[in-house]
């Protein structure tokens, strides 16, 4: 199905005489550019919080199992919902993104082909979906939103049990991106080594907390300025904190030893609350200006 820039997918499906509820396999080409937006008040800025065409897929195709977006482009898609801001130099909306919430809770969606020009996926874009196998993201991606793949108890078909590959170009991974929700613990069964891009700007709390079978050691990317407990608990060892870190919000669960370098200025009030595996004294550098309560 080809969608021209400015067209609404629902109209295209209707003109083709297709029943969306009966669509099981779908390939989209062209460009989706319609987004949900407006003003909440005269004093608030214009916002984007979704896409009418992506909402149409989620709300009208309950039996969709396979979606191919390899030849699809998108324009002005929101990375996050209204009231949220990704920060760290990331825009609220951009081209070649899958918008926030696009396929949330589509538990029958099992197979997905990434767009060739994909730059990122928005918050909760695949949360609760039924994707299975490996997640091999294309090079060129820069953004994986908060709760992007987090699963929920009512969407138990998640079968992501192969390899998780994070491209070297990724700069931002939001909190709980591959995390646990609604009490689900062993939701993702990736078993490869967790390797993160060295030039990342942000790695959110609990980003990989739902990945109890991944392997490796704690490697903090050099580009981060704040440290969060993003790694699953089974990944441990000595914690080497890069010189660029200015704020420590929380220590990874599996850290056994830690050396805090000069340059760290702030330590969160619960930074060591879950660091049960530490086996060494912790010395604070002279540059620390604030310790949270």
Would you spell out the secondary-structure blueprint of this structure?
Layout: E1 2-3, H1 9-15, E2 25-27, E3 29-32, E4 37-38, E5 47-48, H2 52-60, E6 66-68, E7 72-74, E8 77-78, E9 93-94, E10 97-98, E11 111-113, E12 120-121, E13 132-136, E14 143-144, E15 159-165, E16 172-173, E17 202-203, E18 226-227, E19 236-240, E20 247-248, E21 254-259, E22 266-267, E23 290-291
Parallel strand pairs: 1-3, 2-6, 3-7, 6-11, 10-12, 12-14, 13-15, 14-16, 16-17, 18-20, 19-21, 20-22, 22-23
Antiparallel strand pairs: 4-5, 8-9
Q: Based on helices, strands and strand pairing, what is the structural class?
A: mainly beta
Please, what is the oligomeric state? single chain
Helix fraction?
under 10%
Extract low-pLDDT stretches: none
Element-level helix/strand string: EHEEEEHEEEEEEEEEEEEEEEEEE
Instruction: Describe the global form.
Output: elongated
Strand content: 15-25%
**Average pLDDT figure:** 88
Count of extended strands: 23
Describe the largest sheet.
5 strands, parallel
Question: Which key terms come to mind for this protein?
Answer:
single chain, 293 residues, five-stranded parallel sheet, four-stranded parallel sheet, 2 helices, 23 strands, 23% strand
Structure description:
- With 293 residues, this protein is mainly beta.
- Helices cover 5% and strands 23% of the residues.
- The chain contains 2 helices and 23 strands.
- It has helices at 9-15, 52-60; strands spanning 2-3, 25-27, 29-32, 37-38, 47-48, 66-68, 72-74, 77-78, 93-94, 97-98, 111-113, 120-121, 132-136, 143-144, 159-165, 172-173, 202-203, 226-227, 236-240, 247-248, 254-259, 266-267, 290-291.
- It is elongated, with a radius of gyration of 20 Å.
């Amino acid at each position: 199905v080809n969608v021209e820039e400015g067209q609404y997918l629902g109209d295209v499906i209707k003109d083709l005489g297709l029943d969306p509820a009966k669509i099981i396999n779908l390939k989209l080409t062209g460009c989706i550019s319609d987004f949900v937006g407006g003003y909440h008040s005269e004093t608030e800025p214009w916002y984007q919080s979704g896409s009418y065409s992506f909402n149409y897929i989620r709300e009208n195709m309950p039996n969709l199992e396979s979606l191919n977006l390899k030849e699809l482009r998108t324009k002005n898609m929101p990375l996050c919902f209204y009231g949220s801001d990704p920060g760290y130099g990331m825009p609220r909306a951009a081209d070649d993104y899958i918008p926030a919430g696009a396929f949330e809770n589509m538990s029958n969606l099992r197979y997905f082909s990434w767009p060739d020009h994909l730059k990122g996926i928005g918050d909760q874009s695949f949360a609760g979906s039924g994707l299975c196998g490996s997640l091999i993201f294309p090079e060129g991606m820069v953004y994986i939103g908060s709760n992007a793949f987090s699963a929920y108890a009512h969407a138990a078909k998640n079968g992501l049990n192969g390899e998780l590959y994070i491209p070297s170009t990724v700069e931002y991974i939001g909190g709980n991106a591959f995390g646990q929700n609604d009490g689900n613990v062993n939701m993702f069964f990736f078993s490869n080594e967790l390797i993160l891009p060295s030039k990342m700007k942000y790695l959110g709390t609990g980003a990989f907390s739902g990945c109890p079978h991944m392997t490796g050691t704690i490697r903090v990317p050099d580009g981060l300025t704040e440290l969060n407990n993003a790694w699953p608990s089974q990944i441990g060892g000595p914690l080497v904190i890069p010189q660029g870190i200015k704020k420590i919000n929380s220590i990874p669960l599996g850290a056994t030893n830690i050396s805090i370098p000069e340059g760290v200025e702030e330590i969160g009030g619960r930074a060591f609350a879950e660091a049960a595996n530490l086996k060494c004294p912790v010395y604070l550098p002279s540059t620390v200006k604030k310790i949270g309560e």
